[in-house]
Amino acid sequence: MAQIEVEHLGKTFKVPEREAGLVASIGSLFRRKYRDVRAVDDINFTVEAGEIVGFLGPNGAGKTTTLKMLSGLLHPTAGEARVLGHTPWKREADYLRRISMLMGQRSQLQWDLPAVDSFYMHGAVYDIPKADYQQTLDELVELLAIGPVLKKQVRTLSLGERMKCEICASLLHRPAVLFLDEPTIGVDVEMQARIRSFIGQYNRKHGATIILTSHYMADVTALCKRIIVIDQGQLLFDGSLPALSEKMAPFKVIKIDLDAKCDDYPFAEIGEVISCDDRKVELKVPKAEAAAATAKLLTDLSVLDLTIEDPPIEDVIKQVFGGRAQRDDAETTETAGASA
Amino acid sequence: MSHLLRAFPAFLRVSIQAMLQYRGEILLWCMWGIVNPTVLYVMWSAATRGAPDGKIAGLDQNGFAVYYFFLLIVGHLTAAWDVYNMSYLVRKGQLSPLLLRPILPMWESLSSNLAYKITTLMFAAPMWLVFILITQPSFQTQWWQAGLGMIALLLGAALNYMLCYTVALVAFWTTKLDAVGEIYFGLGMLLGGRMAPVDALPPYLQIASEFLPFKWMFAFPVEVLAGMRDDVHAVTRGLLIQAAWVMLVVLVFRISWHLAVKRYSAVSG
Questions:
Q1: Do the beta carbons of residue A297 and residue A233 sit within 8 Å?
Q2: Which of B6, B11, B93 minimises the CB distance to A106?
Q3: I need a labelling partner for A189 at 20 to 30 A (CA). Which of A24, A131, A275, B49 fits?
């Protein structure tokens, strides 16, 4: 059953705009110019109960705006959404009690007090029965290994410790739907892995539906079977990770182990050389030419091992958004040329 | 409602704990609260010595000591500052986590307000005693005035808190609110009888103060507590005006909050 349904959702912000400099500043006092920015533009998707969906896109793509609309923080300018049967921006208390949104760069903890005091307040705000509260807290403290930091002032915690406490606070009321906006931002690699593992465990144990945005592809590949790619407010892709590579990456990676060094072999004529290290070579080859390239390599060289792989998801995403950036640059140059 | 009855004491407990982290700051806020009325008392007290009958607006030196003593207490217990806080929360995007909770952010803010008043009492009360020792006022307050004065004080505090929070919602449109805060506090000083008793103001300002809420927040409770209002009917009428103002502001708040949340654009995250 779909827990999140989004139909033609859109959000346009009216943003004040002016040229740089004092004269423009004075001018803006009398005549203010505004520009409409379509942060989210007619997106549609549904998320089933218990799914973890990775929401990917470059900065300013509209990911956070979408999550804010789904959590009831923002009113959309177009479209509809239903989460757990509620319209999020009506902000009904029954709805807010069943969701949680964790924003990596925003704190919900009392800065000057130990985290355990914030947890206590959270328990009262969400009206969690005392026995349930203690049981959930004990469980989360153990899973997140935050026992030793519970009594330390939040402002004295490291970023990783604080983030784990933020996660604990977000989950105390056992939300059925969880919006995670950059939950591992700024924390070290080891802590990222722990947080990731915890989110996976929580999803399996409680069947929570999770939408996750992250700039760390490791978060996405470890947790999400399904990916939604959004760029310039529009939905570019909705499907599995392998399907993303299939659709978005027009190339394959051929890895070969050679019997002997072949420094003078013209690998560059077959494809783009990613690496050439002693007897190991990695080539990037257009998808349509992968079979022919493989046959040629096997014919020309003494090959011990050969694999054809989809490119790493990081490279696919880089390619998708890099391509967009290049298109933008080209359009800007074209416009500038036309203006001149 | 039962949910609120559980959440509010938790907010209050945590807010008091947070306040107690900074003893120095509590002391400084108390001093800030006592300096302004004390300076004004000294000024008006000196002015009475130059007045023909030793009185200004019906108050002699002792009258001003009594007035400003109660203003110390009323000023402290009716204080509200959300007009500054809200601007910060909206500008820094810190309102978002509060809006995600299934409870109005106002309740947490109110708990901070009460926490401030409770925790600062331990420093403020001795300062009020020092004021009495220095000025040695002679109190004329009768029991009924003290009782109704307490009710007036509670209504004044509720009115100032709700109006301040409602005005603070302008931050959802303008983001910055410092100038609005200054206007609000300026009007409170002038028309609320803090700069001078309302009877000492020019007639047109006295009329304005009747129809604006500031007098009903500060001057009216002070005048009742100081025993300056001896007509029980007039005091009862004043209490009804205060209650009407509170209801009106609550209504305006409910409408404004709905519009403000719709307007919220979650600035900077």
A1: no
A2: B93
A3: A275
Q: Does any CB of chain B come closer than 8 Å to the CB of residue A100?
A: yes
CA distance B107 to B78: 16
**Domain that includes residue B146, residue range:** 2-263
Bridge partners of A280, per DSSP, are A257, A277
How buried is A270 (Cβ within 10 angstroms: 0-12 exposed, 13-18 middle, 19+ buried)? buried
Task: Give the best-scoring range by mean pLDDT among A33-37, A193-197, B165-169.
Answer: B165-169
Structural domain total, chain B? 1
Give the ipTM of the model, two decimals please: 0.85
- Residue A17, strand partner residues: A33
Contacts of A80 by beta carbon, 8 Å cutoff, 6+ apart: A5, A6, A7, A8, A9, A87
- B136 inside domain: yes
- Of A177, A301, A223, nearest to A56 (Cα)? A223
Cβ contact B266–A91 (<8 Å) = no
The answer to whether the CB atoms of B102 and A97 lie below 8 A apart is yes
Picking from A283, A265, A286, the residue whose alpha carbon sits closest to that of residue A274 is A283
Let me know the angle formed at the C-alpha of B250 by B246 and B253, rounded to the nearest 5 degrees.
Answer: 140
Q: How far is B268 from chain A (nearest CA, A)?
A: 10
Q: What percent of chain A has pLDDT over 70?
A: 94
pLDDT of residue B164: 96
Taking the mean position of all CA atoms in its chain, how far away is CA B50? 32
Q: Is the pLDDT assigned to residue B48 strictly greater than 80?
A: yes
Burial class (CB in 10 A: 0-12, 13-18, 19+), A95: buried
* A72 reaches B (C-beta below 8 A): yes
Cβ atoms B87, B181 nearer than 8 A: yes
Q: Does B186 touch chain A (CB under 8 A)?
A: no
What Rg value do the Cα atoms of chain B yield, rounded? 19
Distance CA A63, CA B187 (A): 44
CB spacing of B9 vs A120 below 8 angstroms = no
Distance in Å, alpha carbon of B106 to nearest chain A alpha carbon: 13
Q: Which residue of A has its CA nearest to B4?
A: A125
Q: CB distance from B93 to chain A under 8 Å?
A: yes
Question: What are the phi and psi torsion angles at A38 (to 5°)?
Answer: -85, 95
Pair of tokens at residue B128:
């009020």
* Residue A335, pLDDT score: 40
Residue A46 has what pLDDT? Answer: 97
- Which residue matches tokens 């900065």? A59
- Asked if residue B268 is part of any domain, the answer here is no
Do residue B266 and residue A73 have CB atoms under 8 angstroms apart?
yes
Non-local CB neighbours of B90 within 8 Å, separated by 6+ positions? B171, B172, B175, B264, B267
**A-B C-beta contacts closer than 8 Å:** 79
> Which residue in the set A91, A107, A127 is minimally distant from B6, CB to CB?
A127
Domains and their CATH numbers in chain A: 2-8+42-245 (3.40.50.300), 250-309 (3.30.70.980)
